[in-house]
Structures are given as C-alpha cells and as structure tokens.
Design a protein that fits this description.
single chain; 587 residues; Rossmann fold; 14 strands; 55% helix; elongated; nucleotide-binding; branched-chain amino acid transmembrane transporter activity; ABC_transporter-like_ATP-bd; ATP hydrolysis activity; membrane
C-alpha cells in the first residue's frame, strides 16, 4: 500500500499545477507530525501539544547549520543528525518529567502545553543568531524541483503511515491500546508503562524532527511559529477532526484542512479560522470519534444494505501450554517475610507494625472487619512505594521502594478486589497482554498462539473461558471476569499470589469452583497465596492459616481452628458490627 501511495504521488505531479504541489508539500509534512500526535493521543492516550516544538527543532537545526556553517552534503547530514538528537534529548527530559511513577495523565498535557512557549522564548532570546521573531531565511538548501519535493514529502508520509499501521496492528500495538485503557493493570502485570510511553514519545519526536528538517530544506525559511503553541494546537484539532486512533483519519484531515486553509485564508483571513474553530467544536460535541470512523461505519452499513457485507470471523489465538520457567528461590526460607510494616496518611495510622511470614504451599487468609487495613497491606506488598515503614521480602529479596512492575519481576502477582481487565480486548488478548513480561511482543506481527502456564490454563479451562477466547472482556459475566483476572495474574508465574476478595459477588457454585482452584494452586503448584476474604465459611474450607487484622494491627496468627474459636475474633467482629460475622466466627 505504501508503494502504491508513492506511485500515486509520482503520478499526481503530471496532473497538479505548481501552486497546488507547493501547498501540498507543506500539508504532507504537517500530516507526518499529525500522525505522531495520533500515535500519542489516539493510541496511548497522551494528549500532547508539544509536537510542534519537535517539528521546529528539526527545522531550526537545518536553518541554523545552513545559515551559519554553510550548505554541503556533510552539513546536510550534520543538520539532520543534530535535529533528531536535540529533539530526542528534549523529548527524553519531557518524558522523564511526565511519566515518572505516580504522575497523573495530566502531567504530560501540562508539560507539553508549556514546551512550545518555552521553545519560542528560546528562539526570541537568540537574537540575530536564531533570527529572533523574524526567523531565518535566504540560506542555501537542496536544489530540487517542486515535483521532487512533492514526491519526497508524499513518500515520507506514506512510509511513516505504513510503518505506524504495521506496529499498531502487531502485538506491540495491542499493548499500546492496553496501556491507554488500563495503565494500572498493565503495571501490576509487570509492564514498564513509563518506559514504553517514553519510547513512543522519543520516536514521535524524532519523526516530527525529520518532517521539520525536510520543511526547512524545502521552504528555505524557518520562523518561531513552527515551534509555537498555535501550531501545536492546530495539530490536535486536525487529528480530532480526522478521527484519532485511526492513523489515516488525521493524515487525511490534516492535508485537507491545511490545503483548504491555503486556498481560502487569502479570501477570508479571519472568518476561515472561525469556521475551523466552529467545526472543531461541532465535531467534539457531535462526532467525538472524528469524521473517518463515521464514514467507515456508514460504508459498512451501506455494504450490508446492498448485500456486500459478509460475516467476519473473529481472529483469536490458539491456546498452548507454556514451558514452566525455573525461578531461583530459597527452598528453606519463607516465600514472603513482612517485618514492621506501617502505613499512615499524614497523622492517621492505617497499618502499625505488621509482622508475619508465609511459605510456599501455604494459603494464608487475612481477615478482619472493614477498615482493618487488609487491602492497604496488599497494596504495600505489591508496590514498594506504598508503605511508610518496615520491610517486605519476596524469596529473601527486599522489594525496597520498587514500583509495581519491578515487584512483579520479584514474583508478586496481585488480583484486585474488583475485576480489573481490559474491557475492549478479547479474552485471548487480555491473557496475551499478561504474558508480555515473559513472551516479548512483536513489533511487526500479531501472535497466533496463546502460551499459558499450567495453572493459568487450568483456570481458563475450568471456568469455560477457553470457549470464549474471542469474546470481548466487557461482555463476560462478573464471575467470568474474576476468573479471567485470576488467569491473567497466574500467567505471570508468580511465587506469591495476592487475592483481594476473589469471591465477592459470586454465586455459591462459583465460590466453590474458585475455592477448589486456589486449593490446588497452593497444594499442587506450591504457590504462596495471601487471601483477603470476609466469608469465614470460605476461609475455613480452604485456608492453611488465618491472620486477623484489627485497627491496623495484627492481633492473631494461627491455624483455622485456633482463629475461628478465638474469643478475640468474636469480640472484634461483634464490636465492629460486622453483619453475620460473629456467628460465623463462633462456629
């Protein structure tokens, strides 16, 4: 398709007049930058206003080198390398500020909003060297015909769009969508989301810099407007109009809007901007997906109406058993050791001096009334930055202040209280995302196999999910979503499994099924399982030990018989007013 597009651009030189090609060269280069905005915003969910800065960096690198050093093949290569290097360096600083652990999605938007303003001021302060507010012009550049520039710009856009299309259709593209949809779940699957977002940001910056370099070589003029906030905002508008998350939509939208702007802005210099603004507002309100998805839906409906729309078969992966990894563990030591763990929010203590340990093959239930600190303890185990004091060791290795994805690498797998899956992805895709840390995703193809370790495959088969691999996760029942998330966590091949109320909202039959699975995981797979649960009947049936928390303290640690018959437990539940729990504990 890219080759056909390039051939079409070459053929168009015989049809288009010089003025149209002159305008379209700029439009095609702008579309390359809009493509990077679509990758970041449409696929990764990062609303960025700073791609104009990277475009301007590439343009100014060419302008400054050609103006002050001179033009030659050597300086042309130097300018291109400098533009890409500086753009990537600036992007790295922005990514470091925007994607650090704990930063919200708003950070990236705010930083990229400020970036064009800062870049413009840097150019203004450069005086005659940067041309200040007037920019640079009149420097020697490439001696190419307008037809050659048109084909070059079109070819670069075609190659960039094709490459983006291949990546977004691959395993890596599916992972990018997963990060946009549920970044928290990705982190707790061991995926370094900050690193992946940074890589995408750096690649997008480099691509924008290349477009800027070509623009400077073509126009022989660079101006502060190229790095400015207005251009950065226009890119966002063009992407929204075309349809973000579609690749082709932003490319087509940018070319059409910029070309028509050149045609009509001379006749209607102020009214045209107003028209574009009104259209943008109308699209955001009435067509939030943009024009291309609406057009695509219309063509599909038309095809079905005229009888051309056949049934499509959902493509899914074939389930296979993955080879079990050999993980070095201390055979005679505890799988998890917790010493003096504390958590407080300001002056409010939530956990105080929690001490216990558990070994491989144990299923330890954490019980206690609401507000006892059970879920908070789970968070402290799965995320090294959560606790206020104390130490936690997995297989004899301290988690320190490691983020969740690094804790997963030590052998921790966490299932949340509410089923936490990827609603827009199929069951198979959710499970493939869960295997990302172990089975590296491809950049150029979509996997046709779903390799799951024995425990995860057993959960999938036992709960009937193996018959629904092509079903979007949002269409599953509550119980099936719980089972899917459990299978996703087991796909990580953890040493310590953290389960927060896995039977909440399930029927009695579903609870029995999950209970049998958990018992097998502990006894047959030798997993260390920490289970938060309110159903004491369920706890009694499957637990090897019970730990009781109350008001942030560990008050009892013993066998099931010792705990359920304890007067302390009866008093705790009775005092907490836990409905039904005193009777359960007294049995």
């Amino acid at each position: 398709m890219a080759a056909l597009a390039i051939a079409a651009f070459a053929g168009a030189t015989q049809i288009l007049d010089t003025y149209s090609m002159n305008v379209l060269v700029r439009s095609l280069l702008y579309a390359m930058v809009a493509l990077t905005v679509d990758i970041l915003w449409g696929y990764l969910g990062i609303l960025t206003f700073g791609q104009s800065t990277f475009f301007g960096i590439g343009a100014y690198a060419a302008g400054l080198v050609f103006m002050h050093v001179g033009f030659s093949p050597g300086t042309a290569v130097l300018a291109l390398a400098a533009g890409i290097a500086i753009a990537v360096l600036v992007a790295a600083v922005v990514a470091w500020l925007a994607f650090w652990h704990g930063a919200s999605e708003l950070y990236a938007s705010v930083i990229t909003l400020v970036l064009p303003i800062v870049a413009t001021q840097v150019i203004f302060s450069g005086g005659t060297w940067t041309g200040s507010s007037s920019g640079l012009s009149g420097f020697e550049t490439f001696d190419l015909s307008i037809e050659a520039w048109f084909v070059l710009a079109g070819s670069l856009l075609a190659v960039a769009t094709a490459a983006a299309w291949v990546v977004m259709a691959s395993d890596a593209g599916r992972l990018i969508v997963a990060i946009r949809e549920n970044e928290q779940r990705c982190k707790y699957l061991g995926i370094g989301t900050a690193r992946l977002k940074s890589i995408a940001f750096l690649v997008s910056a480099a691509l924008a810099a290349v477009a800027g370099y070509v623009f400077a070589g073509y126009a022989a003029v660079v101006a502060p407007e190229l790095v400015g906030f207005v251009f950065g905002t226009e890119l966002v508008i063009w992407v929204a109009l075309g349809g973000r998350g579609t690749l082709l939509g932003p490319v087509i939208g940018t070319v059409l809007v910029d070309y028509e702007s050149a045609q009509l802005s001379g006749d209607y210099p102020f009214v045209w901007k107003l028209i574009i603004g009104l259209v943008f507002v109308a699209v955001i309100v009435a067509l939030p997906r943009g024009f291309l998805p609406i057009l695509g839906d219309g063509l599909k409906r038309l095809g079905r109406w005229v009888g051309l729309g056949g049934k499509t078969t959902a493509r899914t992966a074939t389930l296979v058993t993955a080879a079990r990894r050999t993980v070095a563990t201390a055979s005679d030591g505890p799988a998890i050791r917790i010493r003096g763990v504390a958590k407080h929010f300001g002056s409010l203590p939530v956990l105080r001096g929690i001490d216990f340990e558990a070994r491989a093959g144990e299923l330890v239930s954490l019980v206690g009334p609401n507000g006892a600190g059970k879920t908070t303890l789970m968070r402290c185990i799965a995320d090294g930055s959560e606790r206020s004091g104390g130490t936690i060791e997995i297989g004899g290795v301290s988690i320190g202040r490691l983020p969740p994805e690094r804790c997963v690498a030590l052998g921790i797998g966490r299932k949340f209280q509410m089923a936490n899956v990827f609603d827009s992805l199929t069951v198979a895709e959710c499970l493939q995302i869960a295997r990302t840390r172990i089975d590296r995703p491809s950049l150029v193809r979509r996997s046709t196999e779903l390799a799951l370790p024995g425990p995860a495959a057993r959960v999938v088969a036992t709960t009937g999910l193996d018959q629904r691999l092509a079903t979007p996760a949002r269409l599953l029942s509550h119980g099936q979503k719980q089972a899917l998330e459990l299978a996703m966590v087991l796909a990580l091949e953890p040493k310590v499994l953290l389960l927060d109320e896995p039977t909440a909202g399930l029927s009695k039959a579903e609870r029995m099924l999950i209970g049998g699975i958990l018992t097998d995981l502990a006894t047959q797979e030798r997993l260390c399982i920490l289970l938060v649960e309110h159903d004491l009947d369920f706890v009694r049936e499957i637990s090897s030990r019970v730990v009781v928390l109350h008001q942030g303290r560990l008050v009892l640690d013993g066998t099931v018989e010792e705990v359920v018959g304890s007067e302390t437990v009866k008093q705790i539940y009775a005092g907490a007013g836990h409905h039904g729990a005193p009777a359960e504990a007294a049995r």
